[in-house]
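Chapter summary example.
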Amino acid sequence: MKRFFVTGIGTGVGKTIVSAVLTEAMQADYWKPIQTGAAVEITDSETVKSMLSNKKSVIHPEAFCLKKPVSPHEAAAEEKVEIIADKIIPPATSNTLVIEGAGGLLVPLNNRETMLDLIKFLNAEIILVVRHYLGSINHTLLSAHLLKHSGVKVAGIIYNGTPNRASEDAITGFLSIPVIGRIKEQSHFTPAIVMRQATELKTGLLSLQREPVFFNPEI
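The structure predicted for these 219 residues follows.
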């Protein structure tokens, strides 16, 4: 059973849409360990569930479902709970598991650990979601630099949204991380659109059967 951790170069780059497409494409299970903002909007788990067409995928309950729409460490403090990476137990499944993070790699879980510590504990391969905006090249390269020095496994990049050839050429020029594919821009996503995008992504997903890029922190 493989675990893929979907993280982004920042907040709002489309991790949930990418997670839904990946889950549909692989008929994988889906898990969002830490949800914030549950008091003001539907959860990402509910969103993904509403977009799936296959009958195999299981949506597993969150380890933490927090009300306030802020960073996990602040939302947890508000509810007088503590998030500790190695206390978050992944769901028992023999299926491929798509795990969606909250925010980016250095979002704090508490005053000692970040989302990256949770990724290491779960021993998951990272899928980095990149969306183009002013500053996204810098955010992508910073994320990749952090991954390079963390000793984690990286499956690849998925671009989400409108292509930008200049930005993508710059990113490719600096990085050796494979590009899995692209989720095309849509005004809204329906199960039919997610299924179509999943079908289009399947060729790139064949790369996930190969060994991931492994960044040795000693190099």
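To summarize the output: DSSP finds seven helices and ten strands in the chain.
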